[in-house]
Amino acid sequence: MKKIMCYIIGIITLFLIIIIIKRFMFQEEIESISYEIKSYNKIEYPYFNNKVINKEIKNFLNNFKGEYSIQYSVYQINDLVNVFISLKKNNNYYYKSINYNIRKRELINNNEIINYDLLNDLILNKIRNKYSNTIYESILNDKFNSTYLKICEDNIFIYFGCVNTKYEVYIVLNDTIETNSEVINKKMVAFTFDDGPSIYTKDFVNTLNEYGFKATFFELGNRIKYNQGVVEYLLNNGMEVASHSYSHKNLNILGDREIDSEVNSTSIIFNEITKESIKLFRPPYGNLEKSVLDRINYPIIMWDIDSYDWLYKDEEIVYKNIINNIKDGSIVLMHDVYITSLEALKKVLPELKAMGYVVTTVSELASSKGYTLENKTKYYSFR
Predict the structure, then answer these.
(1) 229 in a structural domain
(2) Which helix H or strand E contains 301, and what residues bound it?
């Protein structure tokens, strides 16, 4: 018996030692990367104490033989390391940008940092004002597929590799530009609005737009049906539209056929209006027993912060309920059917922006936090 106990203790001890060593190695890697970043701005032969970054650099340089000149810059902001390489060969410029999350230990795509859909017009206008029509047309046709990011303390540079010229082609975005900011570790929350569309829904959208924010609207099928223009307004302004059932019945007390009707009818109506599909579902009253959950083939979005706007109809109480409980990754429940909720939102958003939060949709928050939304699964927050 003593031998067995000693054997078990030995295994546990070995397991703990392995965990400690791995943790130490991971921490050492982060510190090494940080040291390289602080120590160098431009060097001839970039090298980091990180196999992933080194492999990306090596693969890029293997494309070039003979003589060439190279410069690169490195910048770290929170968990994001950005390495930008500019290589000149035969009077042509070639670029490589490497974005690496040192916490998750993985590479990040450019479009996870820059929201090209949101910034499309701004970027194209900058190009049009700075360069010739030929360059503008080349970049327009490329659709931002050949873009490379150089991140600095105050600016983000976008270089365009689709244009071969004797000079570098790039534009500068200042630090007020919104980005898909999980990568640079901004605080993010999802705001959700239930029970619409209503006469106030467009005002909610306009208020969100004032701060460059987005949200998810869980709407009722019987209201979508008679407010098609509002639904189109939501989508045209970058909001996410999801289902809150057809008529807000408590699904737990319905039969299977009624449950299917409440869930599917909204999806059918939404598709007829927009030619798009519903991707998320929120049950009325937040009630959903296991037997009902098994019949719903959508991710189930709940919440961790209830504004209680449905109960108090008081903008000050609603404001405090949100501000006093907000956390990175939270899902906030509100309703776009009350004027007091709208007034509370007008107070909440500027304060959240001042606190460094980005307000976005459920799907974007989930993606930014590394979640893959799965059907028949409840989500209360993304932390």
Answers:
(1) yes
(2) strand 300-301
